[in-house]
Amino acid sequence: KKVKQLRRAGFTPVHLYGPGIDSQSLQCSHRELLSILTRAGRNTPIAILVEGSDEENLALVRDVHWEPVRGDLLHVDFLRVNVGQRISAEVPLTLVGESEGAREARGAVVQRLYSLQIEALPLKIPQEMEVDVSLLNEPESVIRAKDIELPADVTLLTDPETMVAGIDVARAQVGEME
User: Fold this and answer.
1) pTM of the full predicted structure?
2) What is the pLDDT along the chain (178 residues), one digit of tens a residue?
3) Which terminus of the chain is more solvent-facing, meaning fewer CB atoms within 10 Å of its CB: N or C?
4) Which of 166, 158, 157 is nearest to 131 (CA)?
5) What are the φ/ψ torsions at residue 47 (nearest 5 degrees)?
6) Cβ–Cβ contacts within 10 Å for residue 107, how many?
7) 46 CB burial (10 A radius; 0-12, 13-18, 19+)
8) Do residues 46 and 56 make contact, with C-beta atoms less than 8 angstroms apart?
């Protein structure tokens, strides 16, 4: 009942946990929380200030619960991180550019992998990574995880041979019609 009343009052329950702190059940303004989640995503550290405490907690979004029918935000879990300790994170991939190979083959660039698993310091985790499809200059060309240029101090955890993008060429069949 308390959670329903909390949500009606415009607040969303959040949970903050992690190394060096006791697990805490907190609440945050629904509107402010949605704004922060939209801007930060899942791999950008968020500074969390708990009312009545002077300590700032740097945390990552670990889990977001949505109401399945209406899509309302129900609950968010935050994992506190240590700024000096490397962590693993999933970073979304975005295709950019144009592929000469796809144009020549009259095919389409197809994305096969949508995120990379990386390891880095919390403040060095990129929000997203761009994949330049101009590297696909022949119909048989593929881009693998190892071909993506990573920022300094970022380690690739995804299998380097995993295909990120390639060219699909439509194969037309010409046959006799009876």
Assistant:
1) 0.75
2) 688 888 889 999 999 998 888 899 999 999 999 999 988 877 888 999 888 888 888 998 989 999 899 888 899 999 999 889 999 989 999 999 998 888 888 888 999 999 999 999 998 998 899 999 998 988 888 999 999 999 999 999 999 999 999 988 876 545 555 5
3) C
4) 166
5) -85, 125
6) 18
7) middle
8) no
